[in-house]
Amino acid sequence: MWTIGRFPALWVLPVILPVAVLTIYPIGYALWTSLHQVMLLFPGEDWVGLDNYKAVVTGEYFGAALKNSLVFTLFSAPLVVLIGTATAMFLYRDFFGVTALRSIILLPWVLPGAISAVLWTWVFHPSWGVINSTLFKLGLIDHSIPWLSDPTLAFVSITVAHVWTQVPFTVVLVMAALSAINPETIEAAVVDGARPFQRFALVIFPQIKAIIVLLLVYNALIAFTSYDLVYAMTGGGPGTATTLLSFQIWKESFSMYDFGAGSAVAFIVVAISAVLIVAITWAIPSDIFGEDEPADAKA
Amino acid sequence: MKVHRLLAATVLVGGLAAAPASAQDITLEFTVWNYSLDTIQDNAKKFEAENPGIKVKITDYTWPDYHDAMVLRFRGGTPTDVAYVGQDWLPAWAAAGFLAPLDDVAPADVLSALKADMAPFALSDETYDGKIYGLPYYADTISFLYNKKILESAGIAVPQTWDDVMAAALKLKEGGMEHPIDYEFNQELPNFWDAFVAQAYGRGGDLFDADKKAIFDNPDNPAYKQLEWLAEAFKKDLVQQDTHESKIIPSMNTGKHAFTVVYNYVLAAMNNAAEQPMAGDFALALMPGAAHQTLGFTKFYAITASAAADPARAAAAWKFVNFMAGKPYTVAQRWAEEKGLGFGQVPLFNDPAVVASWNKWIDMTTLKEQVATARGGTWTEWTSVWSAYFRPLLAKAMVGEATVDETMKAGAAKWNEYREKMMKK
To answer: Which position among A87, A277, B13, B407 has the lowest Cβ density within 10 Å, counted as fewest Cβ atoms?
Structure first.
């Protein structure tokens, strides 16, 4: 007799096939590439084992790129979540013009990274950028600040631009989480005399902490793999001041034409990202995604 | 009867469809980057009208994608007959067997006459291993530009040496100009290296010896001295950095900067009265330094090795290249007059239409003098890869994050390492 339970592998094939073609094959090919010498302009793709990994790790830019990526992630991921949550709390209130404001605040989300980078390059321009012009007019500076050419300031500038592009997504998700909260619990807290911060810490946060942790993991990964903003704003410079590991993947592959080395960097980024995810999920309390129901619970 | 007619018609139509096109009908696959695509298409149409039986199919890419797309086309065997090629890509592409020398497809006397008309740097840029691989689509120099009004009002003469530039910049800074020099500072752009070479050429001398070994790590080398000069200028806070030439144009038009080093077409944009408030204030000077030389570069039409392997296709491709860049230089003249693009065909300097058009934004006498002394770069199979490695080091040295000596030593060592590696291959 024919049942849907027969040939289970056949039924999942329509899902497995696209996944295999679009994910497993490229990853497998990238792994193969990282273990071979693949330089576009020269024939032959010789097996080199872990030589590409060794060359990349001992290369002159790897240490700086790794450090920059970790610091960039460490600062930008919490900042995005912090600012995003605060913005969501503000926009969740009901006041005149809030609908328009909610739409405007989402704008950075719909802009492609390269466009955002161009926009921020103009904002940070030393001669006629908005920031320096404003500071000049207010009499706060008498020399232009080299936002994108001073190594430290360039790093701060790309962090600011990155946070700006990522905050809207956090706002959307936190607002969604806020809308799931039973308003009566907040009203009860108000009746009990809880101050705003107490209401947030004791009533609201426990109910949105799962999404906050998810956003933290998500933003850590986005920051660690960020590429387009840096490429367009600073080109990784000056020197290696803003060179990130993901940028190094592009550079090895398309600037140095060494796809083997580029793939090796890509796999190193994947490995570090995996460690980051595990570290963050280990660091959070085990009950974050909801407590287990007691054994004697009734339906 | 009707059935017979139908069958006859079917056979006739089928026969026509199956018949090969005329033996003379050739469609050339022509790849370009998409600058002024409508002009390219119009030129191709004119060629088709003059050459019945030859069609041109144009495939365009954006400039940033062009190199990678072409390498993938060549490696993937995508049919390509004629292509835009950059001087910096020629050695690697020719060595890889992607391109064919024009000597293999063009009549020797015609080619010889065309070579005689070419600016020396253009000829050098198109030559690999003693053979010429293309005819110029666009050739230009990297030039030293200044603001005439600022210098006149400050009583400063046009600088002749880099010491003059430093003295002028210091004087302007004392007079209240925060950053007299506007510098295109983007270590990911190949022209970051090109502009540096152009400045070193101004001083004279070579960065590489006859065997193409790097010698710029010698403290007496002009490149070494120029990097010291740049580091000092940055240290004295005389330089404003702009990440792209498109930002140099409005920056110079703020009147806050007096000097810059960029391509000539940037001068055309800076002096464009329709768009810029200080248009007309900017002028070209010979590159400062004892030699006043600069770097010239050439983008050219080249014929692929696959096209050259087929005699009929090779003949058609040569006809097309000769139409686009050969005598009487109609297409090159059009690019120069309509778009302000530089040219490698020296006779165009005396073309009345070009002179009239260019005189609006550049001093043709100075330009002619600069082009006559312009030199090609040292383009090898490994130059672009090495340049990608060295440019961040150069950037660090300029802003004082590394010493000039360690930068030049590291750069020279890596160049020589690549050289050895490539020689073995």
So the answer is: B13
Between these two residues, B312 and A292, which has the higher pLDDT value? B312
Across the interface, which of A43, A127, A256 has its CB nearest the CB of B256? A127
Q: For residue B149, is it within any domain? A: yes
**DSSP per-residue codes, chain A:** ---TTS-HHHHHHHHHHHHIIIIIHHHHHHHHHHTB--BTTSS---B-TTHHHHHHHTSTTHHHHHHHHHHHHHHHHHHHHHHHHHHHHHHTS--TTHHHHHHHHTHHHHS-HHHHHHHHHHHT-TTT-HHHHHHHHTTS-SS---TTTSHHHHHHHHHHHHHHHHHHHHHHHHHHHHHTS-HHHHHHHHHTT--HHHIIIIIIHHHHHHHHHHHHHHHHHHHHT--HHHHHHTTT-STTTT--HHHHHHIIIIIS-BHHHHHHHHHHHHHHHHHHHHHHHHHS-TTTT-PPPPTT---
Structural domain that includes position B175:
142-295+379-424
**Does residue B166 lie within any of the structural domains?**
yes
Does the pLDDT of residue A293 top 60, yes or no?
A: no
B150 and B94 in a common domain = no
Specify whether B48 is located in the same domain as B119: yes
Per-domain residue ranges of chain A: 51-283
Task: Give yes or no for a contact between A269 and A250, defined as CB atoms under 8 angstroms apart.
Answer: no
The domain covering A51-283 belongs, at the CATH homologous superfamily level, to: MetI-like (1.10.3720.10)
Does residue B290 share a domain with residue B389? yes
Looking at residue A239, its pLDDT comes to 79
For residue A151, list chain B residues with Cβ-Cβ distance below 8 A: 399, 401
Give contacts of A 233-272 with B, CB under 8 A.
233-241, 243, 251, 254-258
Chain A, nearest residue to B180 by Cα: A127
pLDDT digits (tens, 9 = 90+) for A218-265: 999 999 998 888 888 888 888 788 999 988 888 888 778 788 999 999
Q: B336 lies in a domain?
A: yes
The pLDDT, as a whole number, for residue B244 is: 85
Provide, rounded to the nearest whole percent, the portion of chain B with pLDDT above 70.
94
Best of B93, B243, B253 to substitute, by most chain A Cβ atoms within 10 angstroms, is B243
Quick one: pLDDT at residue A113?
83
Q: Where are the alpha helices (DSSP H) in B359-403?
A: 364-373, 383-398
Q: For residue A114, what pLDDT is reported?
A: 81
Contact across the interface for B187 and A243, Cβ inside 8 Å:
no
Query: Which of the pair, A280 or B234, is modelled with greater confidence?
Result: B234
Q: Are B240 and A126 an interchain contact pair (Cβ–Cβ within 8 Å)? A: yes
What CATH code is carried by the domain that includes residue B350? 3.40.190.10
Min distance B167 CA to chain A CA atoms (Å): 21
**Cβ separation of B395 and A254 shorter than 8 Å?**
no
Is residue B310 domain-shared with residue B247, that is, in the same domain?
A: no
Residue among B92, B256, B402 whose CB faces A41 most closely: B92
With CB atoms and an 8 Å threshold, state whether B401 touches A41.
Answer: no
| Interface residue A37 vs chain B (CB under 8 A) | no
pLDDT, chain B, mean: 91
Chain A partners within 8 Å of B183 (Cβ): none
- Check residue A107 and give its pLDDT: 86
ipTM score of the complex? 0.73
| Whether A143 contacts chain B with CB within 8 A | yes
Which of A37, A38, A40, A41 should we substitute to test contact with B (largest number of B Cβ atoms within 10 Å)? A41
- Enumerate the residues of chain A whose CB falls inside 8 A of the CB of residue B243: 121, 148, 233-235
Cross-chain residue pair A234–B243, CB shorter than 8 Å? yes
As for how many domains chain B has, the answer is: 2
- The reply to whether B15 falls in a domain is no
Q: Which pLDDT belongs to residue A287?
A: 63
Question: pLDDT tens digits for A34-61?
Answer: 999 888 666 678 899 999 999 999 987 8
